[in-house]
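Feature request, filed as a ticket because there's no other form

It would be nice if the structure record came with a short human-readable summary line next to the tokens. Right now we just get the raw output. Example of a typical job, pasted below so the devs can see what we mean:
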Amino acid sequence: MLHESQLDTLYYDHAMQVEDKEKFKEAMLKKVATHFERKHRELIAIQEVPASTKLVDSVWAMQRKRCISMGEIYKY
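Raw output as currently delivered:
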């Protein structure tokens, strides 16, 4: 049996299939915008990346954050 917290942690492909997928999309847009605003990330064309540069793979891991006492979702 899965613990509730395991049901609230999803990879992108699964998160885009659930009922509250729009909330995950909003959270992703907010997260990306914040990284660019704070200059943590810079968008460049793949053609501009030097051939000797090793690119780092990444995955989106989504999570519903819940209030411990009530179990209600307060953040995505």
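Something like this underneath would help us a lot:
DSSP finds three helices and four strands in the chain.
The chain has one domain: 4-48+56-75.
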